[in-house]
Amino acid sequence: MCKGHSCYRPRRTGERKRKSVRGCIVDANLSVLNLVIVKKGEKDIPGLTDITVPRRLGPKRASRIHKLFNLSKEDDVRQYVLRKPLNKEG
Q: Keyword Plastid: yes or no (predicted)?
C-alpha cells in the first residue's frame, strides 16, 4: 500500500506497508502461515507439542529469582543468577 490508500499514513518518503488483503482465505497459493497453539488437544503433534524446550534465559530481577528458587529474603541472590553461555570465538 502506498500514500494514496485510506487508513495508512506513511512515516517516510517511499515507505510501503505490507498488508494482508486476503482476510481469512487459506489455499495452496499461500507460502507461509503464522500460527500460535492456543489449546493442547488429545494427541500430541510430533516435534511440536511432544517436547519441552527449557527457557534460554532466567529472571534478572532479584524478587523473581527469589520466587523461582524459593529463596528467603536473607539468601544471596547473586549465587543463583543464570548467565548466558559466552561464546569466545575470534
A: no
pTM metric for this prediction: 0.45
pLDDT in tens, 12-38: 888 777 665 677 778 887 788 888 888
Burial of 71 (0-12, 13-18, 19+ CB in 10 A): middle
Owner of C-alpha cell 575470534: 90
State how far Cα 90 lies from the chain centre: 30
Residues near 3 by Cβ (< 8 Å), separated by ≥ 6?
Answer: 10
Q: How far apart are CA 77 and CA 59, in angstroms?
A: 11
